[in-house]
Amino acid sequence: MAEKLMKYAEATQQYDVVFGLETHVELSTDTKLFCPAHIEFGGEPNTQLTPVSLGLPGSLPVINEKAVDYAIKLGLALHCKINEWSQFARKNYFYPDMPRDYQISQYDKPTNGEGYLDVELEDGTIFRVPIERAHIEDDAGKNTHVGGADGRIEGADHSLVDYNRAGVPLIEIVTKPIEGAGDRAPEIAGAYMRAIRDIVRALGISEARMEHGNMRADVNVSLRKSPEDPFGTRSETKNVNSFRGIEKTIQYEIRRQAARLNAGKEILQETRHWDEASQTTAGGRLKSDADDYRYFPDPDLVMLHITDEHIERMKAQMPEMPRERRNRLKAEWGFNDIEMRDVINADALDLIEQTVAAGSSAAGAKKWWLGELSREANEQGKALEELGVTPDDVAEVEKLISSGALNDKLAKQTMACVIAGEGKPEEVVKAHGFKVMSDDGALEQTVQEAMDANPDIVAKLQSGNMKPMGAIIGAVMRATKGQADAKAVTKIVMQKIKG
């Protein structure tokens, strides 16, 4: 039975919101964290394995040095304290996709200690998110439930386990309890997750594609009457794998918990699961505390000793960070604050930069990605990069416009065909015969026919009233199926009314 919800505005007025995020970032190393098994997304199930990743008796883990370097770089980007000594621990629990029955993680001695990340909200406000730690661990495998609805375990006939992902290196970024967010908690969470995504991509340590599971988050939410009160009991919604899902999870949990508290009901400390179809969370198991995992140092792994010299080497390899990059691109492209914020909010910065690199103007790239393509993506419920249009495609269409081969209408038709999967822009143009009329004789005849059919409009034009020019241009466009050039039509009309 669906739980009762309080209106969001009422909930955030009556209760102080506290939330936290545990973000899992899959590292783009070639091999797993403790063994040489190759990593490849989408590979045949149970083919990327070694005795170590299967947890076979007698197999011994050896740390992946590149994963440690990646962790240090991320720690530097998040203003974390890089600990000289860090230690791996065994986190004991049974899941079918965890072949060892324990996860190798870090507990009280993580590689990266306390830090922070300043995130920019839609209105330009800067909110500082405090970070507790960013530690290294290995991932579990993947369960596939067969026979149930939407791949869920409920009603499934059986489950399949793929251990390919078992042992893939992760960094888990754990925030401190985030206070003072109020009704902007979902927005802050979304901005924070996008900032993490941008940072790890800039560092080159992860693809951070949430749809591939490269990045996901556990979302903790609790409510209390006032900021002076102790923290309330929190729920933890596990493995949310979209920015919108994270924002919606926080909204839902605030409304759900507020309704329960108002009804005098208890908030359970439990794990929950976000259901995208119903836009709700559902209860799972009662949440374990750290003691229940029986953490202890992994006896097969020595402590990591990270020297100051090594940290300095990592600092020397740090690339331009996202905020610095945004400021540079804003200046290079000549965008104002509002234009740049629109680009960032549309998640189009990378796409526009790549389109400009492919030969488009910044203004032209922005026009497409924030205009036609953004509308199409919204209609399809997809991210821009999932639309099937590449930056090269956009730059190619822009070149066809600037060369005079296409006008705006034909360019939109061309792009629609590209989205539909008909091929590259030049292939679409050739297949459909899209081209601006360059035959002055044919175009002049069509313009004359439009003028003859609209003598009242011609009279207004001859009197110096240019406002009805659009009616003549529209008539010519209809007659030529959009292949006429509006500027050429205007020029011919002006010549005729003056002649």
The biggest beta sheet is recorded as: 8 strands, mixed
What is the share of helical residues?
25-40%
Kindly report the spatial arrangement of strands forming the biggest sheet: 5-6-9-1-10-11-12-13
| Rg over alpha carbons | 29 Å
Count every helix, treating DSSP H or I runs of 4 or more residues as helices. 17
Distance between the termini: 78 Å
Helix and strand composition category: alpha+beta
Total individual domains? 3
Q: Return the average pLDDT rounded to an integer.
A: 91
Low-confidence stretches: none
What is the beta-strand fraction?
15-25%
Shape: elongated
Domain Asn/Gln amidotransferase: 350-497
Subunit structure: Heterotrimer of A, B and C subunits.
GO molecular function, one term: glutaminyl-tRNA synthase (glutamine-hydrolyzing) activity
Family: Belongs to the GatB/GatE family. GatB subfamily.
